[in-house]
Amino acid sequence: MPSRPPLRTYVTLLCAAVLAALLPAGTAQAASRTVQGGRLDWGIKSSFQSYVTGPIANGSFSLTGGAATVGGSQFRFHSATGTYDGTSGAFNAGFSGGVHFLGHKKDDGTYQLDLTISRPTVRLSGNGGTLYVDVISKAKGTGTVTTSSQVPFASLSLGGINMKGGGNAVQLNNLPATLTAQGAKSFAGYYTAGTALDPVSLSADVKAAAAAEPSRTPSPSPSKSKAKKESSGRIENGAVDWGVRRTFREYVTGSIAKGEWKLTDGAQDGGALFRFPEGAGTYDEKKQTLDATFAGAVRFTGEQGLDLKLGALRAKVTDDGKGTLYADVTSAGGTGGADTGSTARTNGTTKKVPLVTFTAKDFKPEDGLALVTEAPTKLTADGAKAFRGMYRAGTEMDPVSLAVALTDSAELPALPDLGSAESATPQAAAAEPKTAEPKAEATASDSDVPVLPIGLAGASLIAVAAAFVIIRRRRAQPAADAPEEN
Q1: Partners of 169 in the beta sheet?
Q2: Which of 110, 156, 162, 250 has its CA at 20 to 30 Å from residue 349's CA atom?
């Protein structure tokens, strides 16, 4: 008769069973990671960009929601939020920002080509995934406008990448993207399902799941609220977000000026915009008027005599909803705005130059915060002089956003969060020539929108590189996100 195992063996097995029962919960907790901060770089389809801005469509694109340009033909979407499971490798993150394409302007001022792509979301699991986007498109033939939310726009291939890990950042470069059937439909019929789109690159910070904190009910402070309501209109805080002009930033860092910009005195870089903080001044809620100053300065320098500094920004909004953004201007040769009206020259700097005008719609506060979001701006005559004639008066500059906090508890909108991982700009390991797609014939009808741009010499080169993922420790300092050369 075989001998029974000693009691110690039973105890050991029992302990192991208990630990095994407990491990899944612990493992799940460790795998539950929050994605917070990061960016996604994607050109959508670079040939489509070229067509839109080319001589046939004769159109343009504009950026919304803090999106930026990076490299020669990519858009940068920001502020990644979502989840990453290091155990399974599942990744799910959404990004902010959008791109609005317009082309083929008609006699009535509308555009036949009108397409907006925004809020990309990447979901990865196993050996692939899907890129979802919000789309507003106008059909080529009928002109019917369709608005769709989180369309499964492109299929993504991971190419055998092992997404499992436990570091503090995820980086993916050059993920091949293919247009889906739903994507082709929402793309207004410009391309068919299966068309290769530009590759997708992203980087995102990954944080451990925060422990739940007990809910706290703030103590009421009626006397303070009453004091704020009866105040003379002094604002508690404020910020101006303005990128000056996208093409100007690209010129500064491009191959001609070969320059840069530097922020001082508290100004912050949000990728596609600069934030001028610490707003101080007065706001009249009844009239919805504002007179406020803001801290920070930006200085652009480069070749071709480029040296322009904008600082001491001031925003004024009158009771008819008209807004003006002022700045102290210092530029090469001591030239700034005109020495007329409210401006004055001091030590080579022109004070209080009215740079751009805008319309402040619905400037009524909610929950102690008055907002103007991405209001279109136009360059003034004095502003044109500040730019030394580079742009004419009336030129559209970047939109301006204005936030004014009227109470201590009101929070200003967050800046775009580009994350702390190193740049996810694609660096192709090799380039493979691709046979040029047939050129569409130009016809008298604007409805014949070609799939590829006309007038491009030779075949297009598309970088085909193996995508890779790096999951690593977060750097102590965030990497610079200045636009690259075009």
Answers
A1: 205
A2: 250
State the sign of the Cα–Cα–Cα–Cα dihedral 265, 96, 101, 176: positive
3-state secondary structure of 319: coil
- Is residue 91 within 8 Å of residue 163, measured between CB atoms? yes
- 93: amino acid identity, one letter: A
The pLDDT score that the predictor gives to residue 4 is 52
pLDDT in tens, 370-383: 999 999 999 999 99
Tell me, what's the pLDDT at 333? 55
Which of 474, 440, 477, 472 is CA-nearest to residue 455? Answer: 440
**Model confidence over 58-96: pLDDT tens digits?**
999 999 999 998 877 899 999 999 999 988 999 999 999
DSSP letter (8 states) at residue 15: H
Alpha helical stretches, state H, 61-171:
none
d(CA 175, CA 173): 6
- Sequence-ordered list of residues with C-beta below 8 angstroms from that of 79, at least 6 positions apart, any chain: 37, 38, 66, 95, 96, 97, 414, 416, 417, 418
**Structure tokens given for 197:** 């789109």
Q: What is the DSSP string of 451-474?
A: SS-SS--SPPEEE-----EEE-PP
Q: Once rounded to an integer, what is the mean pLDDT over residues 184-195?
A: 91
Q: What local confidence, expressed as pLDDT, does residue 474 receive?
A: 35
Closest CA relative to residue 161, chosen from 148, 151, 175, 149:
175
Alpha-carbon distance of 134 to 46, in angstroms, equals 19
- The reported pLDDT for the residue numbered 16 is 43
Q: Is 347 helix (H, G, I), strand (E, B) or coil?
A: coil
- Secondary structure of 143-186 as H, E, C letters: CCEEEEEEEEEEEEECCCCCCCCCCCEEEEEEEEEEECHHHHHH
Dist. CA 133–CA 185, nearest whole Å: 13
Q: Which residues contact 415 (CB under 8 A, 6 or more apart)?
A: 241, 268, 270, 275
User: Three-class SS of residue 142?
Assistant: coil
Look up residue 412 and give its amino acid. L
Q: Which residue type, as a one-letter code, is found at position 92?
A: N
Instruction: Give me the residue label for tokens 């020495």.
Output: 339
H/E run at residue 24: helix 7-31
